[in-house]
Amino acid sequence: MDSILNTAKTWLTDFFDADVRKEVQHLMDTNIEELKDRFYKNMEFGTGGMRGVMGVGTNRINKYTLGKSTQGLSNYLKQTYKGEDIKVVIAYDCRHNSDTLAKTVAEVFSANGIKVFLFSELRTTPELSFAVRYLKCHAGIVLTASHNPPEYNGYKVYWTDGGQIVPPQDGKIVAEINSLSFEDINFKTNPSLIQLIDKEVDEAFINESVARGSFGAKGKDDFKIVFTSLHGTSITAIPEVLKRAGYKNVTVIEEQAKPDGAFPTVKSPNPEEPEALSIAIKKAEQIGADMVVGTDPDSDRLGIAVRNLEGKMEILNGNQTMVLMTKFLLDKQKNKGFKGNEFIATTIVSTPMMEVMAKAYGVEYKTALTGFKWIGKMIKDFPEANFIGGGEESFGYMVGDFVRDKDAVTSTLLACEIAANAKANGSSFYNDLIACYAAYGLYKEKLISITKKGMSGAEEIKQMLKDFKENPVVSVAGSKVKWIEDYNTSVAKNVITGEEKKIDLPKSNVLIYETEDGTRVAARPSGTEPKVKFYISTNKPLAKVADFQTVDAELNTKIDRILSELKLN
Q1: Statement to judge: residues 45 and 193 lie in one domain
Q2: Is-catalytic flag, 456?
Q3: Exposure of 165 by Cβ count < 10 A (0-12 exposed, 13-18 middle, 19+ buried)?
Q4: 425, 476: one domain
Q5: Which residues, listed in sequence order, are joined to residue 389 by a DSSP beta bridge?
Q6: Do 458 and 410 belong together in one domain?
Q7: Which terminus, N or C, of the chain has the lesser number of Cβ atoms within 10 Å?
Q8: pLDDT digits (tens, 9 = 90+) for 265-288
Q9: Are strands 291-295 and 302-307 parallel, antiparallel or unpaired?
Q10: At which of 168, 197, 226 does a domain end?
Q11: Using one digit for the tens of pLDDT, what is the confidence trace for 447-463?
Q12: What are phi and psi of 33, to 5 degrees?
């Protein structure tokens, strides 16, 4: 506790604004528990950069924690690109304080002699990724907390390739940041180095999104879409992209169209949560729409709902959407002719069905740790390869490589192209998905997230993962565990034969059990939220489309059994 108090006291010096000093002193006098949570650690970079609750303190997002990160990044850029005129581009989303925090970040860069392109208003994360390469910048920043609750904000760093920072840059940048004190931040802005940007980059991004996401779908005039931006940034791009691609029957949920960091109409602005799409689904049922699309605040994740076999709107999970999008892109590439250098990609906690499809099409399949930055890194690491598309279970997808992060803008258009074309051919998005299951097996996934907040919560998460590892699961739903993949030790062990394989990925706090029948259970802490996540995947052959509902029900029952066995329900 003494060390926490000593850290807090450093924020009482004249370097910090008067209101900051006043708040820290008030916490010291009246609320020691809150003070502890704000100062017990420094805000850290996770799988999605730096993300956390806004407020005063070292464990909060504020002008000083972001300023220190920006100072460290400025130092690293100048060390790496000596003698060059360094340029960065900055975007921000709809969250409270995102605009002022973006301005602060721009000012620190400019104070360090770095040219800044700052979007004049909120923009999507995929446009920021695109803008890094379009403007030939050395780095990019987006101020966003993605789908987190309203009290959060965040800071994601992109490198010269338009992808998020990865090794070795991330470690070197973090080391530089950690070597600094807050007093090292240069806040003496140079306004001449800050240039506002908007329409030119918008046009380039939208045009490219339309070009990459359009596939000449039939039936656009007869295809009805309900779209919600969930108060986020996608309102600046998706309606225009759909319009230019030829979709005329697009109903925008007006009460969710205005950007608002309070997200007043939803419990969570996360398309992974069914409640987030409830207003849009209600509208779709009223007007007889074919598809609902909703995106998170920074527009890198998309959730969709389509009509199921009973004609009711059903929300698909990220794995389902990813599978059908990937199959569609593979079919298009197959029609053009494979050259032998194509690959698709996903993450270690996403559906194994992606690998099955890759083998069927004869293309390479690559897996990455959780976090889309690793998929972006693949494109950079294998420039001779042709990235078709890929995604992750958490509702992110990337079409080709013109954006180097998950992209709900282009993916929304792709989903509409698939669904409109299917309808015109007498099928549907849902029916095409079932046909995909009949071809490759019916895979069913379930995600369980357990939230544990604060310092004690962090310890609980650590202990849960430790217990999961030290008390190995022997069988899952009656199937004996065959492989244990420990990404902390980089070893996959066959517990039946004793065989061991090296996992050729960076170390990560992930443990995966795989059984003899292909059922998988993975556990990992979230990199951006106080959560521990359990991923369950099971599968069964689907002999014919007509058996779908029966086999689907069997797998649902199996997942319920697994949840009960692991005490996760």
Answers
A1: yes
A2: no
A3: buried
A4: no
A5: 344, 399
A6: no
A7: N
A8: 999 999 999 999 999 999 999 999
A9: antiparallel
A10: 197
A11: 999 988 877 888 888 88
A12: -65, -45
Q: Is residue 242 part of a domain?
A: yes
Q: Which domain holds residue 480?
A: 442-565
DSSP string, 1-69: -HHHHHHHHGGGSTTS-HHHHHHHHHHHHH-HHHHHHHHSS---EETTEEEEEBSSSTTSBSHHHHHHH
Rounded CA-CA distance 147/152 in Å is 9
- Beta partners for residue 302, in sequence order: 295
pLDDT in tens, 323-369: 999 999 999 999 999 999 999 999 999 999 999 999 999 999 999 99
129, 146, 278, 508: which one is catalytic? Answer: 146
**35 within domain boundaries:** no
Q: Which amino acid is at 313?
A: M
Cβ atoms within 10 Å of 316's Cβ, excluding its own: 20
Beta bridge partners of residue 447, listed in sequence order: 535
**Measured CA distances, 75 to 66, 71, 196, 280 (Å):** 14, 6, 23, 46
Q: How far apart are the first and last CA of the chain?
A: 36
Beta bridge partners of 344: 365, 389
Report whether 293 contacts 416 (CB < 8 A). Answer: yes
Enumerate the β-bridge partners of residue 365. Answer: 344
CA nearest neighbour of 35 among 73, 53, 8: 8
Are 82 and 47 part of one and the same domain? yes
Question: Which among 410, 440, 218 is positioned nearest to 325, based on CA atoms?
Answer: 410
Residue 48 is predicted with a pLDDT of 58
Choose among 567, 175, 280, 214: nearest CA to 421: 214
Both 355 and 454 in one domain: the answer is no
